[in-house]
Amino acid sequence: MSRLLGILALGALGALAACSDQGAVPRDAQHLPTVSPRAEAPPASQAVPAVPEGAGTGDTGMAWTVPAGWVAETPSSPMRRAQYRVPGKAGDGECAVFYFGPGQGGDPMANASRWAGQFTLPDGRPATEAMTTSRLPVGGGEALVVEVAGTYNGGMTMTSAPATPKSGYRLLGAIAPGPDANWFFKLTGPDATVAAQREAFLAMVRSLKHGA
Questions:
Q1: What does the alpha-carbon distance between residue 189 and residue 86 come to, in Å, rounded to a whole number?
Q2: How confident is the model at residue 54 (pLDDT cuts 50, 70, 90)?
């Protein structure tokens, strides 16, 4: 009898182990890179697919007029097609241009909300409640423009470490349709700097033309 009970107990343990494996993380998945929610990746993806060779260049590229005084820099991320330092008396801002390729990058309004979600208001509420959006004619199409201010909790963070919050910041962004995919223009910096560069940024967006 005791031997029979031992066999039944082992069988029950085996069944429990089998059930627990249903929700276990595959061994290979434990070594996948962690993507921070603040990383400069398309909002709905956990891994950024490589941009197809030649995409976003030539006939599928975009050209624009860089505002006077903006300083071109080497992009700090392969997801950036261009990067500029935007001088200001209150401190320098940064404008980054992103292109993720055909079918990537997500819906314009979803991206606007995601950007606004990187800010919090002085009372701690999410800044999505205070963001403003508008439409701007560009190159035969229409760009979505978003603006929000508060404490900036985003930035270039490709690890799980959170970015350092920056109070008194402002974001001015635009998502514009390109020949084969959307292009993303994101200006962030001290409130006074971004506010002073607002017209220059909008002029750059208006200057967008298809073809590099």
A1: 8
A2: low
